[in-house]
Design a protein that fits this description.
By secondary structure, the protein is of the alpha/beta class. The chain is built from 16 helices and ten strands. About 35% of the residues are buried.
């Protein structure tokens, strides 16, 4: 069977058996796919029975994980693992230490750990913590570069008598020596080269207050918020706060320097009281015109929206920048309450969704502009 036909056969399962016989490797792939995707309830409703045959039903989670690692490329393994925990909620992938130890570190696995860590015994939790740390180290390494670049800022260009080729000011030199233009040779004769120093612009102190919804649907945003806060922590002239909320509000600022431990303390799920969280964030603001409040939530308010609107309006009136993010991740369009988002935008808040890198750039531009 050629490669194209084999792909169709694996996608369609037993109903496509007429396409031809599978070799030993493809048969193993078919069994592994059936073990996972045969759980899809929509197949029965459509009268389709996806059967991989040859022992798929006897596979344990550990066997399946071993098989897909051996039979598929890494990117496919990551997709299969993600579907297992996110789509089919196969919890023993994260609660059996032998299985968890084999899982590829990924953001999907980290989000799954955040959802299921309350089911884990201490041994499994320690294994999960190591998995989380690997993912966080990778995320921080990637984002830290973006943050440093965004906050490197403009540099002052102060005239100096110290001559250094790196600090030669071409534009000012040409302007100052235009009177020495030689029309015959069509060149400017430089009699007075000018130089500048390049000192890092000093930022006036600012506060960045991240208010993060920890309801179950916001797992990705909670994860990226912790990493973003850790990368912002310690930047000159910036004080970072990180606050998580559902119906209660928890200030996690003291844990920002260790995002792994911070995330292991987060409890996803439950209702939301967004207005109460913004009210708490408002109390943290010290200099209103040098503060940015970043509210990260899907805006499905469990409490009365009146308090939220009132608090955001007060923040804006006092000169505080309010940014409402329906998602802080790399995954595209978020699901959020568009009606409440529109009301906040009408007040003057900036409403949207961002990647962590784009948020760093936004903060740098906002802070650097004052």
């Amino acid at each position: 069977m050629d490669e194209a036909l084999e792909r169709w056969r694996l996608m369609l399962g037993q109903p496509a058996a007429s396409l031809g016989e599978l070799d030993e490797t493809a048969t193993g792939r078919d069994a592994a796919l059936d073990w996972l995707y045969g759980r899809d309830e929509s197949l029965a409703r459509r009268g389709v029975r996806r059967t991989g045959g040859q022992g798929a039903g006897a596979l344990t989670t550990f066997d399946w994980l071993d098989d897909i690692t051996r039979l598929f490329p890494t990117e496919t393994v990551e997709r299969l693992e993600r579907d297992a925990v996110e789509r089919y909620r196969i919890d023993d992938l994260l609660t059996d230490p032998a299985v968890l130890g084999r899982v590829e570190p990924s953001t999907a696995m980290l989000k799954a750990v955040l959802r299921t860590k309350h089911l884990m015994n201490p041994q499994v939790l320690e294994t999960a913590r190591r998995l989380v740390r690997k993912v966080i180290v990778e995320l921080m390494s990637s984002l830290a570069t973006r943050v440093r670049t965004a906050f490197s800022g403009a540099r002052t260009r102060t005239p100096t008598r110290v001559r250094n080729s790196r600090n030669f000011d071409l534009r000012r030199t040409l302007r100052a020596n235009l009177r020495h233009y030689d029309p015959d040779n069509r060149r400017v004769v430089i009699s007075e080269p000018l130089f500048v120093t390049r000192d890092q612009r000093r930022l006036r102190p600012w506060q960045v207050i991240l208010l993060v919804d920890q309801s179950g649907s916001m797992a990705g945003s909670v994860m990226h918020s912790a990493v973003t806060a850790a990368c912002l922590w310690g930047l000159p002239g910036i004080r970072t706060h990180l606050v998580a909320f559902d119906t209660e509000v928890v200030d996690l600022t003291s844990d920002v320097t260790d995002p792994v431990e911070l995330l292991m303390k987060v409890h996803l799920g439950g209702g939301t009281d967004i207005g109460r969280a913004v009210q708490y964030g408002s109390q943290l603001v010290e200099a209103p015109r040098r503060a940015v409040v970043v509210l990260i939530t899907d805006l499905y308010e469990g409490g009365a929206p009146g308090l939220l609107l009132q608090q955001v309006s007060q923040l804006l009136d006092q000169g505080t920048v309010v940014l409402v993010l329906a998602a802080l991740d790399d995954e595209g369009a978020p699901d959020f309450d568009h009606r409440l988002g529109s009301r906040l935008a009408d007040l003057g808040a900036q409403v949207g969704a961002m990647t962590p890198g784009r948020l760093a750039e936004f903060l740098a531009a906002t802070i650097g502009g004052f």
